[in-house]
Amino acid sequence: MTSVAERDGKAGAVTRPAPLGRRRDLGWIGIPLVALAGLAAYWLLPDDLALLTRIAASALFVLSLDLVLGYGGIATLGQAAMFGTGAYAAGIVAVNWNNDPFVMLAAGGLAGGLIALATGALILHARGLTLLMLTIAVGQIVQEVANKARDWTGGSDGLSGIDPAPVLGLFRFDMFGRTSYLFALAVLVAGLLVARRIVRSPFGLACRGVKEDPLRISAIGGSPKSYLVALYGVAGVFAGVAGGLTAVTSGIVGLDSAGFPWSAEALVMLVLGGTGRLYGAVIGTAAFMGIHHILAASDPFHWMGFIGLFLIGIVLFLPGGIASGLERLGGLLRRPAGQGEGGA
User: Fold this and answer.
1) Radius of gyration of the chain from its Cα atoms, rounded to whole angstroms
2) What tens digit of pLDDT does each residue of 52-61 get?
3) Region 276-296: what's the mean pLDDT?
4) Is the dihedral angle over the CA atoms 323, 316, 344, 9 positive or is it negative?
């Protein structure tokens, strides 16, 4: 598949592998920067660890959306269905059977992946606005099922009483949020590494090919729908792990975790950061939630207006998101060192 993509690229194919390659190489810079920035925030913002923990878990969720939208071209407003399913699965497992944090993450990822595969096989027959509406419907169904299954989920009161065991049996979750944040940061960095490996694999190249030209993938013997369903399932695993991580670090799961507003906010975060760039999910999440935290504290009634203006400015002047602006800046800084447009 890779060799075919390379040959097509030389012939002027729409998949444009060379620019994607240059963009993906920035991942090795972006992921260490995420880890270093996260550790710096741990020391510089010790009073805001709860917010930083939410940002880390949310960034993993937005990363799952980037996989389906940025790399597969699947427009969705129901990604929270997988997140909420994973969060409830992790919480139910912790309350009833095993409260080990890694078991909770595994339960969340498994549940998110299964619901994504089951629904994706049905809704990915559709395209465009119809697909968008179906993803919203899936999210609403999951939320209503969670509301009705009160014995397991707590219904509208939420699932509480989640008390995760110490990480590796050594690091207890304390009231200051130190363990929660470091655990969330470690899971986010691991998720970025795995996602980068996936998008650079032949499977990831095939999914990008489906996004750009599904007819060409069919012509060389591939199945566009199979690739998209598989990618949707993989993204569901990431969203489920993010939901499980939220259950671990917050100790409660509510109906809003599977609601439409959460899917819409994730899309806004992704657009702010930049689609098709893994670390763009982290940048967009940090920007959105950071601005939300600051402005909501000073003006709780009008902060969304500023978010709207900020988003309009990003779309108009940085269509590729904040990450594209950082890439341009990095390119300008490299040019004086003798690296041209085709530099490594």
Assistant:
1) 20
2) 999 999 999 9
3) 87
4) positive
For the residues of 149-164, what is the DSSP string, one character each?
-HHHH-GGG-B----P
In 3D space, the residue among 30, 88, 133, 35 whose CA is nearest the CA of residue 243 turns out to be 88
Q: Nearest to residue 65, comparing CAs of 216, 218, 270, 295?
A: 270
Reading the block at residue 166, the tokens are 């110490």
| Domains detected in the chain | 2-334 (1.10.3470)
Q: Among candidates 260, 261, 243, which has minimal Cα distance to 252?
A: 243
Q: Which residues contact 68 (CB under 8 A, 6 or more apart)?
A: 74, 76, 79, 231, 232, 235
In this structure, is the dihedral angle defined by the CA atoms of residues 71, 72, 73 and 76, taken in order, positive or negative?
negative
Where helices occur in 79-160 by DSSP H, the ranges are 80-96, 101-123, 128-148, 150-153
pLDDT digits (tens, 9 = 90+) for 176-216: 888 999 999 999 999 999 999 999 999 999 999 888 888 88
Asked if residues 239 and 135 have their Cβ atoms less than 8 Å apart, the reply is: no
Q: Say whether 342 sits in a helix, a strand or coil.
A: coil
The DSSP line for 72-86 is T----S-THHHHHHH
For residue 171, the SS3 value is strand
Per the CB < 8 A criterion, the answer to whether 273 and 282 are in contact is: yes
Model pLDDT, residue 315: 81
Nearest to 323 by CA among 260, 275, 262: 275
Which tokens belong to 249?
């670090």
